[in-house]
């Protein structure tokens, strides 16, 4: 076999080379006679013969890959026919000298025969490897049974029976079954049931006798299987539907739970914010009241202290005046006593003068003069005392006026401070009201805690820093928002400034 293969390969190659060499020379001359140029004429036979080789090679390659394409084979045969015609007609009229024309056209025919032999070998080898090689119907069957053999061949091709012996076995089995059925029903096949006549009916469709007889049972099993499959699908669908309903119910319950959780959290945050706002408002109002009460208490206490001090001073002055009046009265009494004594002395002196003016009378007169002088001194001291008392009264009146002025000024200052504190309390109350409305607005907008914090810092900038973000201390932000990081407070202040720049107003 190896020697035969080598001989076939070498011989086929030699025939092909010789044939293409002869065809090349002949087709080149034909191309020149047809008007091709000297440069293009040599390429004409290359194109024709190369197309034959290329098409046949591609056809063999695709057959080897089990993907044949008949168009390639037909194109190669068409180009081979054209080459044969060109070579045969190159020497003139074919009818004039058919032998000469055949000698020029026989070489391409030999090449195609060799390629077809190789193609047949490759196809058969591929079928043997795949297990699909078909037995040929012997020639003697075509000769001995020319009318039945075509139907036999047709059934083999239609039903994919590749073995000739297998097809004979099937036909013999069908004939034997038919004869058995006739013997069973005494030659009347109409008495046979539909299931018993199935092999004769299904033979035209490639079924064997056993396959045809097993068909009803198989169909029943398949019907039962389909029913079971349908029932299983129905149960699976019902189960999936129930699972889907339960899952939908679970999802709904979970969604309701999540909704309730979110609602509770939002309501809690809203209530907390409102309570915080109300607490801030109440704290501001209470602080204002306490500050007002403390201010009033301080003013009243100061006024009372000043009044007590003034009353104490007035009592001291009254005591001093009473002491001065008492001293003046004493001096006045002493002066009156002296005057009385002086008058008594004058009366005695006058009486004595009438009686006898002696040295004692002169002495008495002298004592009277001294008493008058002493009385004058006492009168002068009393006058000075009364003048000092008058000056004390004037000083007291002036001090009383100054005290009343100071008390009035203190009351006015306290009133102004109270009014300022009241204005501050009203401002804090308005700020608390703004905070409350802002919190309600934020609750309605469902803002995040960070957005709430930024807006609160923005309101702090507006109320405490007159709209200047840099004027708001970070410590106030940390204390108000209860954050420990100055970086966080700085970011809040920066975001609040950007929010105000964008037009935010609570």
Q: How would you describe this protein?
A:
The protein has 13 helices and no strands. The protein has 506 residues and is mainly α. Helix 1 (2-33) runs antiparallel to helix 2. It is elongated, with a radius of gyration of 73 Å. The model has no long low-confidence stretch (mean pLDDT 75).
Write the layout of secondary structure elements.
Blueprint: H1 2-33, H2 43-64, H3 70-88, H4 98-130, H5 139-144, H6 148-158, H7 164-184, H8 198-202, H9 209-355, H10 359-445, H11 449-464, H12 474-481, H13 486-501
Q: What's the short story on this structure?
A:
The protein is mostly helical and 506 residues long. The chain has helices spanning 2-33, 43-64, 70-88, 98-130, 139-144, 148-158, 164-184, 198-202, 209-355, 359-445, 449-464, 474-481, 486-501.
Which runs of at least 5 residues are low in confidence (pLDDT < 50)? Answer: none
Count all strands and give the number.
Answer: 0
- Listing every helix as H and every strand as E from the N terminus to the C terminus, the arrangement reads HHHHHHHHHHHHH
- Kindly report the average pLDDT value: 75
Instruction: Tell me roughly what share of residues is in helical segments.
Output: over 70%
Radius of gyration over C-alpha positions, nearest whole angstrom: 73 Å
Q: What general form does the structure show?
A: elongated
Indicate the structural class. mainly alpha
The N- and C-terminal alpha carbons lie at a distance of: 105 Å
SS field, number of helical segments? 13
């Amino acid at each position: 076999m190896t020697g035969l293969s080598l001989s076939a390969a070498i011989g086929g190659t030699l025939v092909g080379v010789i044939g293409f060499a002869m065809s090349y020379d002949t087709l080149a001359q034909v191309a020149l006679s047809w008007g091709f140029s000297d440069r293009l004429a040599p390429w004409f036979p290359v194109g024709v013969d190369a197309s034959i080789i290329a098409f046949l090679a591609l056809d063999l390659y695709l057959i080897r890959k089990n993907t044949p394409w008949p168009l390639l084979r037909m194109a190669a045969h068409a180009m081979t026919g054209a080459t044969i015609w060109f070579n045969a007609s190159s020497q003139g009229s074919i009818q004039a000298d058919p032998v000469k024309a055949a000698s020029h056209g026989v070489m391409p025919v030999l090449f195609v025969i060799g390629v077809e032999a190789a193609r047949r070998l490759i196809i058969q080898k591929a079928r043997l490897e795949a297990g699909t090689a078909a037995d040929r119907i012997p020639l003697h069957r075509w000769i001995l049974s020319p009318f039945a053999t075509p139907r036999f061949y047709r059934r083999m091709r239609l039903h994919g029976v590749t073995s000739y012996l297998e097809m004979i076995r099937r036909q013999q089995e069908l004939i034997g079954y038919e004869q058995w059925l006739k013997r069973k029903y005494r030659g009347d096949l109409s008495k046979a049931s539909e299931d018993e006549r199935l092999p004769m009916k299904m033979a035209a469709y490639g079924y064997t006798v056993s396959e045809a007889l097993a068909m009803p049972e198989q169909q029943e099993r398949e019907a039962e299987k389909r029913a079971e499959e349908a029932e299983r699908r129905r149960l699976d669908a019902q189960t999936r539907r129930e699972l889907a309903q339960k899952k939908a119910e679970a999802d709904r319950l979970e969604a309701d739970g999540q909704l309730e959780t979110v609602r509770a959290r939002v309501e809690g945050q809203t209530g907390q914010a409102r309570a915080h706002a109300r607490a801030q408002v109440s704290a501001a109002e209470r602080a204002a009241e306490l500050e007002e009460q403390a201010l009033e208490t301080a003013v009243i206490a100061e006024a009372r202290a000043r009044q007590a001090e003034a009353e104490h001073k007035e009592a001291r002055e009254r005591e001093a005046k009473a002491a001065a009046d008492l001293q003046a009265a004493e001096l006045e009494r002493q002066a009156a006593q002296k005057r009385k004594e002086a008058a008594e002395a004058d009366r005695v002196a006058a009486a004595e003068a009438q009686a006898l003016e002696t040295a004692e009378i002169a002495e008495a007169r002298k004592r009277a003069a001294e008493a008058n002088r002493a009385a004058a001194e006492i009168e002068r001291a009393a006058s000075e005392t009364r003048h000092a008392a008058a000056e004390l009264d004037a000083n007291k009146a002036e001090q009383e006026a100054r005290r009343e002025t100071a008390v009035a000024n203190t009351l006015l200052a306290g009133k102004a401070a109270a009014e300022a504190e009241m204005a501050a309390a009203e401002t804090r109350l308005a700020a608390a009201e703004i905070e409350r409305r802002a919190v309600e607005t934020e609750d309605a907008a469902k803002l995040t805690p960070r957005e709430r914090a930024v807006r609160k810092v923005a309101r702090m900038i507006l109320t405490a820093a007159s709209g200047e973000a840099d004027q708001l201390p970070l410590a106030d932000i940390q204390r108000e928002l209860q954050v420990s990081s100055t970086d966080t407070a700085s970011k809040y202040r920066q975001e609040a400034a950007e929010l105000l720049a964008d037009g935010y107003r609570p």
